[in-house]
Amino acid sequence: MIHFRAYHLSFLTYGAALPVRANAATSASQALTHSEMLSQISTFLTAGHETTACALTWTLYALARAPSAQTRLRAALRACDINDVNAVLNLPLLEYTVREALRLHAPVSGTLRVYAGVASECFVPLQNPIRVRVPTWRRLFRRFRCSSSLTGEAENDQWDLQSGVFLRHGDILNIPIQTVNRATDVWGPDAGIFRPERWAALPPAVSTIPGLYAHTLTFLNGNGGAGGNRSCIGYRFAVAEIKVFLACLLHDLEFSIDDDVVIEKRVKCVPLLLIIEPNC
Which residues of 172-210 are buried (b: 16+ CB within 10 A; e: fewer)? Predict the structure, then answer.
């Protein structure tokens, strides 16, 4: 444990030093400002470290809850050359397992975006209408207009059906990553179950999700195709890192958990900060 912590600390120190070294090697016109440098270091330490560690933890938890899937994966790992990195990274069952874990247990369950389009206001149509609660002043107006409602307002009078939403500059949108990744109308009725073999034959509806990785929103997506500028810039390294760790751990170790222990993912939202904490 002492050696692991020492290596862990040296890795973080080296990772934080990378942008500093790169900035020193560039010309003055292309150098980052002090504020930009601090932001990049925060990205290295938080987005590039905590999310991968969280994803690996949830993957091991999912495998502990599914012993048969863990056994099959261990057999596949022992059948391949563990010293050949390419063989490990290209192992189909390992790929299916990582995809399923990242789909079911996305490290970041949601994110925010701010509308800043060319038009000051736009209308975004929805595939299915949504129910929106009618404002109080409008419900009072309906009561005044219809005397029959004075004896008892119907439940439907409190709601309106909207076929889309209006966006104005500065409006904040929530991107429900976990909700899309677990949608039963996309992934099937067993969307909430860890089942790596589902990736051998996905439902046709899955292809409609414009995700960067494996038709999921775990690594988001951008504005210009599958490799858009709003997606995770280090997702390939993160996936490779998770695969290597799983191969090393599962090759010789078996993970189990008490059936009575259920860990739930709870999300706490504060302004401009999203904290995810497990709750036993």
Answer: eeebebbebbbeeebbeeebeebbbebbeeeeeebeebe
Helix/strand/coil for 126? strand
- Indicate the range of 15-19, 177-181, 209-213 predicted with least confidence: 15-19
Amino acid at 263: I
Give the separation between CA 213 and CA 201, rounded to whole angstroms.
16
236-243 long-range contacts, Cβ below 8 Å, gap at least 24?
Answer: 238/48, 238/51, 238/52, 238/55, 239/98, 239/102, 239/213, 240/89, 241/52, 242/52, 242/55, 242/56, 242/59, 242/98, 243/88, 243/89, 243/91, 243/94, 243/95, 243/98
pLDDT digits (tens, 9 = 90+) for 131-156: 877 766 555 655 666 554 444 445 55
| All domains in the chain, ordered by first residue | 32-115+172-279 (1.10.630.10), 121-168 (no CATH)
Helix 2-25 and helix 34-42, axial crossing angle in degrees, nearest 10: 150
For 203, the 3-state DSSP assignment is coil
| Under 8 Å between Cβ of 211 and 189 | no
Among 135, 155, 157, 131, which residue's Cα sits nearest to residue 145? 157
Rounded Cα distance between 213 and 224, Å, is 15
Q: For the segment 103-125, what is each residue's pLDDT rounded down to a tens digit?
A: 999 998 888 888 888 888 999 89
Which residues contact residue 115 at a Cβ distance below 8 angstroms, ignoring those fewer than 6 apart?
122, 167, 168, 169, 170, 171, 172, 173
Say which residues have a Cβ less than 8 Å from residue 19's Cβ, sequence separation at least 6.
32, 37, 40, 41, 44
- End-to-end CA distance of the chain: give it in Å, rounded: 24
Model-level pTM? 0.73
